[in-house]
Structure formats: C-alpha cells, structure tokens
Design a protein that fits this description.
By secondary structure, this protein is mainly α. It has helices spanning 8-23, 47-60, 65-74, 81-91, 101-110, 120-127; strands at residues 28-31, 37-40.
Length: 137
C-alpha cells in the first residue's frame, strides 16, 4: 500500500487479519462478496459487545482499506454514484423510465425508494453498478 494502490493480495491480507482478530473472541467470520461478511457469535454475546469487538478488530486490521478497495473497483473512474445507480436500475428494469439521478439522490437521503430494495437487482446494482462483472442483464 506504500504505492498508494490496494492490490487484491493486500485486500485479502487485511480481511484475513480481521477474521483472525474476530476468531480470538470466538466469533466466526465468513467473508462474502464486496466488503460484507457473515458472522456467528457465541451464545450470550450482546449486539453491543459484538459491535465493539468488530469496531476494534477493523481498526487494528482492515480499517477502511477493504471498503476503499471495493469502492475503487466498483467505480474506478469515480463516476457520479447516483447517475450510475440509476443507469443500472433502469437497465435491470427496477427503476421506471424517467427516474433520474436527482430522484435517486432524494430517495437515498430519505431511504424511501419507489422500488423494493430487497429485490436482488438492487443488490446487484449496488455491488456492481457499471456491470463490470457482466452479471446484470
């Protein structure tokens, strides 16, 4: 990272360090796509304790590195986020014709979208709005 770039290997290393850190507290972490995880904590551990441990482990290991890595890779040209999301949502058929980046920005701020954010197409667009992986119809 001294070259101001985050390689696949560097990202993998910091994510693996996070998994190891959480394992020290008997929390099992399964790395998922993008920067997400699935976790299983010991019986009796409160959400507050889990959040505290997770925050501390992230600070000691991956920090913002993984989030930044995935953000750069999903939008390498740093295009307008609202515009690329609307383009993707329109392509996938989730957003109606005429739905604009300004509409999406307003809905995003209020977290009140005119479509189902639980729809797999929304998740697909959120992860890969430019369809770089070629998985969105």
């Amino acid at each position: 990272m001294s070259d101001e770039k985050i390689t696949d290997q560097e990202n993998h290393e910091v994510r693996t360090e996070f998994v190891s850190c959480m394992a020290a507290f008997d929390i099992q972490i399964e790395l998922q796509e993008s920067d997400s995880i699935k976790s299983t904590s010991p019986a009796g551990m409160t959400d507050a304790k889990y959040d505290e441990l997770s925050k501390n482990c992230r600070a000691e290991t991956s920090g913002q590195i993984s989030s930044l890595y995935f953000q750069i890779n999903r939008n390498p040209e740093n295009k307008d986020e609202f515009a690329i999301m609307v383009e993707c949502l329109s392509r996938s058929g989730l957003a109606e014709r005429g739905y604009s980046a300004k509409d999406y920005e307003a809905a995003f701020g209020e977290q009140n979208f005119p479509f189902d954010v639980g729809d797999p197409r929304f998740r697909a667009c959120s992860l890969d709005p430019l369809n770089r992986e070629g998985t969105i119809p």
